[in-house]
Design a protein that fits this description.
This protein is α+β, with helices and mostly antiparallel strands and 442 residues long. Helix content is 23%, strand content 40%. The longest helix is centred in the N-terminal third of the chain and has 17 residues, at 72-88. The model has no long low-confidence stretch (mean pLDDT 94).
Length: 442
């Protein structure tokens, strides 16, 4: 069944239900995937996914969900069940009607058609990253490359019919030595021509070579230089905490903090729907409002929450163009750059650590921002401004508000980061955070 048929079936069915509001957001993704291990490609796959997000509103009640089984019978049954769920839901006194279109949207970044489905370029990047990882000291390299074209089609009961597409290319590489030390490299871009596969491989291989024979690290508080991959993992939760839905549900560390200082003065963070050089660009949100640039933190001061129409009406402000199907969320976070090179950041640390990668980030108390995460791959002690002993077996247990307030520096260079620990893209510098608690992992 083609997209026009799917939209027609959904539109016809919902129109028969006499809803006050409805929206249909059909998403189509085509992904070319390469996985490689032991220095060679072992998986090359093409994956296509189609889903439709449906929102219904009636009598100040609402419901939304996502359907992946798109045969006609499944669509009709799903809409009936969603409508019943809407009728059975409690009245929402903050209910706000969908915006009335049409709107004017800024054009999305164009991609040369030669960049789409360019299998030779994908293979070249993978082989380049493998070779550079081996040349820099690794004995074994593995990882993945995904090249994705995403298309969305939006139709609402209020006259909005729009289409958008975006392109995402993600290279992740891990390099290992015979001593089982490892390093991680990453490169992300909308354009496959901007993927820096050589540098990703070099970084992974260098870190693997430097981290041979790691030692245990004494628990305590350390000044830590977080590489962009780890810093982005911290900053993504700023975007989550800034959602008005997070505020209302009580799991944000930004509650009642508008116009108050929430970080060091050298930090600014914005959400941008359609950033220059971004890797997941959107020109409209799920309600059809044009996306925009919204300052979340400006020179340490919390300036805005992220809103859809309902939360904006509740807070007496305008929508920031961040509507998800029910709750507002962020699109791309841009973190301010600093004034130091990474080498100068290293030189500023007398007794600290370098953390290059992490995983298993878990929150103990989202409202307080308290979390823990486990450093992965290469970690090092820093003595007198220089990388010295590789370490392993540590855990970071801290609070994000404390870390934001104790950022000592940000690097000049920023990198787009998106991978399994950072699901929504973050343009992040390296950061130095003072007095981070370190414990032994178990």
């Amino acid at each position: 069944m083609n997209i026009d048929n799917i939209l027609s079936i959904v539109d016809t069915k919902i129109s028969s239900l006499n809803c006050d509001d409805y929206s249909l957001l059909l998403g189509k993704e085509h992904e070319d995937l390469i996985r490689f291990s032991n220095n060679s490609i072992d998986v090359f796959d093409n994956i296509e996914n189609i889903s439709i997000s449906i929102y219904l509103g009636k009598d100040k009640k609402r419901a939304g969900g996502v359907l992946y089984n798109l045969d006609e019978n499944s669509i009709l049954k799903y809409i009936d069940s969603l409508f019943q769920f809407c009728n059975d839901s409690p009245i929402n006194n903050d209910y706000t009607n969908l915006p009335t279109g049409p709107f004017n949207y800024s054009p999305n970044r164009s991609i040369d058609i030669d960049e789409v489905n360019n299998y030779e370029s994908i293979i070249d990047h993978v082989e380049n990253s493998i070779n550079s990882g081996l040349q820099s000291g690794a004995s074994r390299v593995c990882g993945s490359f995904t090249s994705t074209k995403s298309e969305i089609f939006l139709k609402t009961s209020t006259g909005i019919e729009s289409h958008d597409d975006s392109f995402t290319n993600l290279l992740n590489i891990r390099a290992f030595t015979e001593s089982k030390s490892s390093g991680h490299g990453i490169s992300c871009s909308a354009s496959i021509n901007d993927i820096d596969s050589e540098n990703a491989g070099l970084i992974a291989g260098d870190y693997a070579k430097l981290s041979i024979n790691p030692k245990l690290c004494e628990p305590g508080k350390y000044d830590i230089l977080f590489a962009p991959t780890v810093a982005a993992d911290i900053f993504q939760f700023v975007g989550h905490a800034a959602s008005a839905d997070s505020i209302d549900s009580g799991d944000s560390f930004f509650t009642d903090k508008i116009n108050l200082q929430v970080s060091s003065e050298n930090l600014s963070i914005s959400d941008i729907g359609n950033p220059e050089g971004g890797i997941y660009n959107r020109i409209f949100d799920d309600e059809g409002i044009p996306t925009q640039s919204t300052n979340i933190i400006e020179n340490g001061i919390l300036k805005n929450y992220l809103h859809n129409m309902t939360t904006a009406n509740k807070y007496g402000v305008k929508s920031t163009g961040n509507a998800g199907i029910i709750a507002p969320s962020y699109w791309n976070l841009e973190v301010s750059s600093g004034f130091l090179t990474v080498e100068e950041q290293l030189s500023s640390i007398d007794d600290g650590l370098l953390i290059t990668n992490n995983w298993y980030t878990r929150f103990q108390n989202p409202a307080a921002g308290s979390y823990s995460t486990v450093p992965r791959d290469a970690c090092f002690i820093i003595n007198n401004g220089k990388i010295t002993t590789p370490i392993h077996g540590i855990r970071i247990s801290d609070e994000i508000p404390r870390q934001l307030s104790n950022i000592d520096s940000l690097s000049k260079i920023r990198n787009w980061i998106s991978w399994w620990e950072v699901e929504i893209p973050v343009l992040s510098p390296s950061i130095v955070v003072k007095d981070v608690p370190i414990t032994r992992s178990t």
